[in-house]
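Morning - iron/sulfur cluster inputs below, output right after.
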Amino acid sequence: MNFPIRNRSQALYVETYGCQMNKSDSELIVGLLTRDGYRLVDDVSRADVILVNTCAIREHAETRVLGRMAELNHLKASNPDLILGLCGCMSQHLGENILDKAPYIDLVVGPDGYRRLPEMIRSLDQNREPALSLALDKTEHYLALDPVREPGVNAWVTIMRGCDKFCTFCIVPYVRGRERSTPHQEILRQVERLAAEGYREVTLLGQTVNAYQDGAIDFAGLLQMVADVDGIERVRFTAPHPSHFSDRLIDVMADHPRVCKHAHLPLQSGSTRILRAMRRDYTAEEYVALVSNLRTRIPGLALTTDIIVGFCGESEEDFQATYDLMAAVRFDSAFMFKYSPREGTAAYRKLADDVPEGEKSRRLTAIIDRQKAISEERNRAYIGRMVEVLVEGESKRDADHLFGKTDTFKTVVFPKTAGVRAQTLVPVHIDRATAFTLFGTSRR
Ligand code: SF4
């Protein structure tokens, strides 16, 4: 039996897991399919096509998505024409083997296959066989395919795809392919359009965003050009790699008033021995020297990071080096994880996952506690100061309050005031602080 020929007003539902890059890819998918006539719906039970955009970073993420796909498959009982698709890193990681575990999936599409989605969905009208698109394509930049973004203050702009670093713990280069930078003209076109649509902030996205290179234009040059676009008040970027943090980039961050004074600088470990095992191409000393250079050139800079504990071979001494470095650098906040091996990575193939689970948990708890105390201390330093907040909207916890961010990426909550609305910059006096939030009073 064939699926009925799809008319062009089919309802599309997209569910996204994982990092910001995935969220940005979902916006691209929505742009692509709505231009092809699909209607985006926010109620999964009304959908004709459901796409789940997935993450492969941790095994746990994949297990969770498999459970979710099984749950979504129940919807086929009342809607046998429903198309269920798996997109993103997990598709690329598991390939067609996913169909052994979930044979009811109709589409399996890797991160470089989204352009084929309309045609693949149409092919299902003729043929019930699952459609797969899993080739990695070094030339795929998704040029001229404007994503459909959620309305708001900030828009994400992907400026490069893939990664060439091959850190031993990471699956990304295998599932997202090799590094490629989007031509700068395309990025500027998108940013100018975003400014015209009313977005006040853009965040430039890439797996190693500061490795961007388009001919003679490096990341510092691109950042300068994006920050010069009229109408954009703030520019952020994530995630830079410590090895690509050039002096020119630090100069642009220091000198351009619209480039936010915040750097997310993944550390991973404070032990040079472990950094080598992770194939991170900097030492702990070089990392600390970079932080010192950044803080000297950019007073008031906020610094956030990623840390993994319990990596293969991490001794108590190695762990202590991370713990001590946190106290020395004093990050504003950190994403902290226990190492878990990922099939397909170099660490999985070649290194023993030899730190016992209980010890990994102890180390994780220790760094979380340390970071919480440091975050609280750093946030308390804002008390009594005036900060400029880009207002995002009503506070989720209290309808009488608004929330927004400082250029240092601190969330600020303050009572609603006449004349203060979303998408505007307002001065706020900070009255109190927790490890996660600043609370203040608008002075407009
Ligand atoms: S730089 Fe390392 S951790 Fe980051 S995406 Fe590339 S391989 Fe993964």
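Note: Residues 87 and 109 are 5 Å apart (CA to CA).

O.
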